[in-house]
Amino acid sequence: MSENTLEVQAPGTPGPSDRAPAAGARSRPWRLLRDNPWWVVGIALVLFSAAFVRVTNTRPGYDPYGWLVWGHQTWHLTLNLGGAPSWKPLPYFFTVPYALFGHYELWLWMVTSVAISLSGVIFAGRIAYQLVGVEDGDRRPAIVAAVFASLGLLGIENYMHFILSVQSDTMIVSLCLGSIDQAIAGRPRWALAIGTLASLGRPEVWAWLGPWSLWLWFKQPSIRKWLIGAWAFIFFMWFGVPTITNQRPLLAEQLALRSPRELKENKIVGTFHRFTELQWLPVQLAALYATIVAYRRRNWTVLALAAAVVVWVIVETILVLRGLPGVPRYMFEPAAVMTVLAGVALGWILRDAPRMNWSLPKWSGIVVVGAIFLILVPAAVSRLRAEHKDLRHERGRTKVINMLQTAINRFGGAKHIVYCGEPVTNVEYVSILAWDTNLNVGSIGYLPKREIKHGYPIVLFTQLPNGWLAEPIHTAPSRVAACANVNSFWIDTPAHPNGALYPHHG
Questions:
Q1: Are 161 and 170 in contact (CB under 8 A)?
Q2: Torsion angles phi and psi, residue 113, rounded to 5
Q3: Residue 124: which of 103, 145, 139 has the closest Cα?
């Protein structure tokens, strides 16, 4: 028997066999993070988005409150899509499960919207980086392209406004970019899954997903079942759900027609003008340069992206000619791809400028790219100031929305309001009042004078400079006494900055 066998281990002292697993256990989480960096990025993005929602202190716009109502009403089997907002499956995909969490549905949607929207910054950068690539170990041109594409995305006209008001438009942009990124990276199933979600946001996405799906059908037969399932899901969500709830498969288009934002000028010129206003001229020229260079190099990926921009604008123009509004935010997606192409152009200039003329110094590309950045600085500063002003406006709107919710609670709650009459308010706050009273948007009156003339019981909510006024009108005689407390002001005063209740004697 050897001395090693007879060696006595002191009580409580770990031996070699005890220490090894402990060290391995400590290194395992770090190894997991190292091997899955994008999971770390995703988690960080969600946490940042939650903080962003909290710090900015804004609230959804008109449409998102309607989408939240859809989720709530679905579980009560009372979903009615016949009123505004027009049907859009993408937010419904999220708000239905979120509605199981009660009033937290609002916060879950806000964080989801912001997180997906901000992910577009990452996808834009990744696409530009992949398209420029790394030559001779030099990553700098690709990094510059990625940075420009990422920042340029946020520079699209009114882009941050729609992130702050947690709309779906910026989400669709991110999903489109995510699908393109995964397609370029050689992950067709992920690209199809993300593209399917994007197709639930706007039908224009079909003009991109359709040709690519057809290409996949012939090039990768193993994915055909995925393609069939994806398109069946898209068509069911767009046409099946409205048929089930309202017997109107084309409900989305019908509600979007005759919009007050419809172009009154030449529709073809007007649509193109709306598109070009989304980005600065240097970005557009840089994207055009990338397209020309890509044609000379037969870079089919870049050419396909350039063609996608043109196709989207053409499709949007056709929809506008059919009577749809074609507002600028419906063309965020091609503007985003154009911005990515501009980033690619800068990366190529940085790398290739010295090669174009042997007499040029190696740093000539840096001068050109630096000049482009400098040209855009004043416009970027101006846009930042506009967004800061918009943020102040949105925070003021948040205060009004919060006071409406508080007022309803102080007046006796949503059920008591409905007991006294149909809620009525100006159109701007209709979907918010529907959310606060647990009613369909179509059950809220939006033309106060007309509702009063009809003579049935209503509760009219009027926004004041510092609060809200509720007035029961045409109240049923048997309910006048019970509804007397509803006839009140909820306003903030210097003595009561968080609001106070005052009776209305008008």
A1: no
A2: -60, -45
A3: 145
Cβ–Cβ < 8 Å for 341, 290:
yes
- Yes or no: say if 311 and 258 are a contact pair by the CB < 8 Å rule: no
CB 452 within 8 A of CB 473: yes
Tell me, what DSSP letter sits at residue 77?
T
From the first residue on, what is the mean pLDDT of each consecutive set of 10 residues in the chain (506 residues)? 40 47 58 75 94 94 93 89 86 96 95 97 97 89 95 95 95 97 95 97 95 95 96 96 87 74 84 94 96 95 97 95 89 97 95 68 77 89 91 92 92 93 94 92 90 93 92 93 90 82 80
| Residue 438 in tokens | 């647990």
pTM for the full predicted model: 0.89
Query: What is the C-alpha separation between 135 and 126, in angstroms, rounded?
Result: 16
In this structure, the chain runs to a length of 506
In the chain, where the domains are located: 19-55, 57-356, 397-503
Cα-based distances in Å from 505 to 131, 325, 469, 500:
69, 44, 11, 16
d(CA 254, CA 198): 21
- Please name the residues in contact with 149: beta carbons below 8 A apart, sequence gap of 6 or more: 124, 125, 127, 128, 339, 340, 342, 343, 344
Residue type at 424?
Answer: V
